[in-house]
Specification:
By secondary structure, the chain is of the alpha/beta class. A five-stranded mixed sheet has the order 7-6-9-8-10. It has a three-stranded mixed sheet with strand order 3-4-5. Strands 1-2 form a two-stranded antiparallel sheet. It binds phenylalanine (PHE) and cobalt (II) ion. The site of phenylalanine has 11 residues, from helix 6.
Length: about 300
């Protein structure tokens, strides 16, 4: 029995946009993509690849090429999966929209990466609040081919399942780690800052802002510091955390987080723009000219 795939988007209510969750796993309905869908992929692909030259980390671009991702048409999950199966053992699964936290963690723990099947509409080309296929596929999938990052993502999923059984606060701590690494992380390569976060690479404005603007802080990676730092989902980030390598990320997250959650439970969170004496400052943000017109 085949079911029509649905396009599950955030709903506008009197509280603003609220996320809507869905658990269905679907086959990518590749033949249902319209000319316009392929054109949207093409426009975004070309635009971001141009901006990301010299800005994204080396692995990101190299891996997009290994996958054969190109401007011509929306990639087929099947083809991406053929290479993932031979390399890091990950697998893309098609989804209709955002997943409930525990479902998401369980997929990651089993090396299944959920990718939204649909792509944004033309009027959403510069900004969409929720993840669409461009963000998920262009942004997240390339690093799944990197063995260390691939292991980190699976470990994160296992950590998520565990944190889910600890407390709501533990989950908040762990979600901040995902936000400041997987979504908005920077990495130092050959002495220069480069982007690896998916939320950045899929955003035209933030790809430039995160590296070139004086406004945000850029701070050396620190697990507990990140776990205590709030974030905004509707503006460019006020703070970016910088890793030196994916190995550093993997090693730093290896310890059991349960005692860390317990320790942090008694401590207040920091505002997104905080700078502390203990921070390894790479750049202290001027805080000036905050863009209000973020894109994602
Ligand atoms: N070590 C973490 C824990 O005990 C699991 C984890 C690994 C979390 C990697 C995030 C990233 O919960
Ligand atoms: Co994402």
């Amino acid at each position: 029995m085949s079911v029509e795939p649905r396009r599950i988007e955030n709903q506008l209510t009197d509280k603003g946009f609220v996320p809507v969750y869905t658990t269905a796993i679907i086959e990518q309905p590749w033949d249902s993509y319209t000319e316009q869908d392929h054109a949207t992929w093409s426009t975004l692909f070309k635009r971001q690849r141009e901006i990301l030259k010299g800005r994204a980390c080396a692995e990101f671009i190299d891996n997009q090429e290994r996958f054969g991702m190109a401007a011509g048409q929306i990639p087929r999950f099947e083809e991406i999966n053929a290479l993932l199966a031979k390399t890091t053992g990950w697998q893309l699964i098609g989804v209709e929209g955002l997943l409930p936290e525990l479902d998401f963690f369980e997929h990651l723990a089993n090396r299944r990466f959920p990718v939204t099947w649909w792509i944004r509409r033309p009027e959403q080309i510069d900004y969409i609040a929720e993840p669409d296929m461009f963000h998920d596929l262009f942004g997240h999938v390339p690093l799944l081919l990197n063995p260390v990052f691939a292991d980190y993502m699976a470990a994160y999923g296992r950590g998520g399942v565990k944190a889910h059984g600890v407390s709501a606060e533990a989950l908040v701590n762990l979600t901040r780690l995902y936000w400041y690494t997987v979504e908005f992380g920077l990495i130092r390569q050959d002495g220069a800052l480069r982007i690896y976060g998916s939320g950045i690479v899929s955003s035209k404005g933030e790809s430039i802002h995160c590296l070139e603007s004086d406004a945000p802080n850029r701070i050396g990676f620190d697990i507990k510091r990140i776990m205590r730092t709030r974030y905004r989902i509707d503006t460019f980030q006020k703070t970016y955390f910088v890793i030196d390598s994916f190995e550093q990320l993997m090693e730093a997250t290896r310890p059991d987080f349960v005692p860390i959650y317990a320790e942090l439970a008694t401590q207040p969170a920091y505002p997104a723009a905080a700078v502390l004496e203990t921070d390894t400052l790479i750049h202290r943000g001027s805080g000036e000219g905050w863009a209000t017109d973020a894109d994602a």
